[in-house]
TrEMBL record:
Entry GO CC: cytosol; EARP complex; GARP complex; membrane
Protein name (database record): Vacuolar protein sorting-associated protein 51 homolog
Gene source species: Stephania cephalantha
InterPro entries: Vps51
Protein task: Acts as component of the GARP complex that is involved in retrograde transport from early and late endosomes to the trans-Golgi network (TGN).
Superkingdom of the source species: Eukaryota
Amino acid sequence: MPIFKVYGDSSFQDCKRASEEAVVIIMENLKAKLFSDSEPVELRAEAVLLLKQLGVPVENLKDKLLKKLDRFLIDFELQSSIHEFVEAVRALWVIFPDSEKQLSELARDLMTKHFKTVEDCIKRRVSSEDLLEMLRIIWINTNALEEVLPEAMLPSFSLEAAHVAIKQYISTMFSHLLHDISETLTRVQTKPKEGVRAESTLQASLEGSKKAVLQGSMDVLLDFRRLLDDNIELLVKLRDFIVDWVQEGFQNFFRMLDNHFLTLSGRNKSVSLDHGTRDGSQGEKVFSGLVLVLAQLSVFVEQNAIPRITEEIAASFSGGGVRGYEYGPAFIPGEICRMFRSAGEKFLHLYVNIKTQKISNLLRKRFTTPNWVKHKEPREVHMFVDLLLQELGAIGTEVQQILPHGIRKHRRSDSNGSTASSRSNPMREDRITRSNTQRARSQLLETHLAKLFKQKMEIFTKVDYTQESVTSTIVKLCLKSLQEFVRLQTFNRSGFQQIQLDIQFLKSPLKEIVEDEAVIDFLLDEVIVASAERCLDPIPLEAAILDKLIQAKLGKSKEKTAVSLVE
């Protein structure tokens, strides 16, 4: 008190001491009243005024109350009641009218914490129902705080945060969809369990992938539709943005899906180096069955998934336009269809190339290993024929599971003039026999070329998505490779006869798996012609000997088949 400051050192010393002790007690009581949540706000505000009159620095007291409120935020959960926090803010503002800035920051911190919880849930794959519930709570809390703290402009703050969260949710849903499709596809690369056929795995993978693409997209659209249909003010204000994000999201999703298909197939530059081998074959490291699945799945995306998704987007997600008309439409189905049409063709050709390279390696080893000039008289069909047919059988098994049947053409018997049959065409046999001279060789080649132009035969046609087309293309390419390998060697009579025997045996099984027998006849005939051209003494086997060796091989094959069935 002023009087004690003047006379406190004299006879008023005891009074001064007693007065100071009383003031301390009063200040402690006032502080206790200030920090008590049970006291009315008016009394707590009056306590602050009295403390100011007593010379107490109230800024420190305000900081303590703000820290108390801050600690409250640490333990505050999204599902907690906002009422206690709102009342604390209301009281603090009444008690300390100059605390607006600090209280606004605390309120924004609360909203930030709310949306951080939302973002964490989105990363863990939250359902649209749960997301809507969280947004509803946040908007209720925003409005409650807006009533007591309008200067904080929390609705605008929450709208901006919701803008980020919803966009993240849509993007994350597409990422999860891509992951689900990838999971289904990568099962193709794993070894099937015991008792499960590899081809069944291929078929299951294709069907599972189709479902993952189409049904997964429909499920995602349903989740997004729930966001549009809800009447939360936050979402109503973001509706046009959501429409644009969904359309842009699908456009980007299918681009990423196309790129992911390329990565799985090994066609991306970043992975193709790892998938190549010294001999150029990708078959060992890129599972050919997966490539075939990707080819057919790309067709499904183009012809089935995109039209269905486009229809749903047009029905439920039209409008938008927030992104600006100068950027063009967000979702362009025609572009996506062209992308997957091109991808499907690439994968189909890649499958053909992988299989052709593998068989070409087999043929290369066959024709570069022996000394053909010193070849012994043929006694049986060479084992490479079995290996070749085994590879073609594996190809047939794969394509039967993934591709539909096509149309067989040029079905005919050898009696109608097969160019490669020495049994049905004795004139052909005579020409080969006389080709030991240069003149005969030239005549043989000219006759062969004349036949090609006369028949107007189309050897290599476009590869279609059918079993017969893919298998036929692989067989044609392999026979052309066989012809080239033959042209690089020089044969004695026995070597030439061995090739004649092997080619004759291949005729029947190859015709069973191709769509155009005439082309196969022609290509087999070209191999014989090439070997005759490279032979020192091209005299073919007699028909009787040829039949005997072929029948012996067929008999052995039947025995092996019978034994395998018994086992």
